[in-house]
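can u pls check wat happens w/ zinc ion
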Amino acid sequence: MVSKVALACACGAVKGELDVVAGDYFHVHCLCCDCQRYARHLGNEAAMLDEYGATELFQTYPAYMKITQGHEYIQAVQLTPKGIYRWHTRCCQMPVANTVKSAGVPFVGVSVTFMQFANEQETLTALGPVTLKAFGKYAKGNIPEDAHPRFPVSFMPKILGFMIKGRLTGKHKPSPFFNATNPVAPVRTLY
Ligand SMILES: [Zn+2]
Ligand SMILES: [Zn+2]
């Protein structure tokens, strides 16, 4: 089963489309300090973080995501030398998605903030419930009851299975963020 989700930045310059494919994604909250720092860097905490400081992400395969307009407004930052690439718009400082540094890895964490949902119910209907809340030890205030303090070991086999399946089926490409093996825009470092 495949459903489509419209993607757009706050000012409307960047638009795209995402396929939601049953069994090929994780709908998660990341409470880590890097995601919180990134939201502060973009100056967009109100849109990006919930009351605990969680970032809502939809982790899937790059081949399922398309940018249809405004490619020129997309750029990336890296918070730490080994850190992921955090792609965002420069027109309105909206988070777009996170990738690892290698184009060969079938992984993209699409920001739910970049998705066009009218309300939380629409989000739930399209993406299903959040199945993992990770790095709760960095939460603002109390840790949400259903969050793991770090990253649960029990989740590792699922991630590994996802990666292997994505690689075997070639879902690492095409990616909106890499031309062959090169990032589509320069990646700025913040360290
Ligand atoms: Zn914009
Ligand atoms: Zn994080």
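The domain at 2-189 is CATH 2.170.150.70 (Metal Binding Protein, Guanine Nucleotide Exchange Factor; Chain A).
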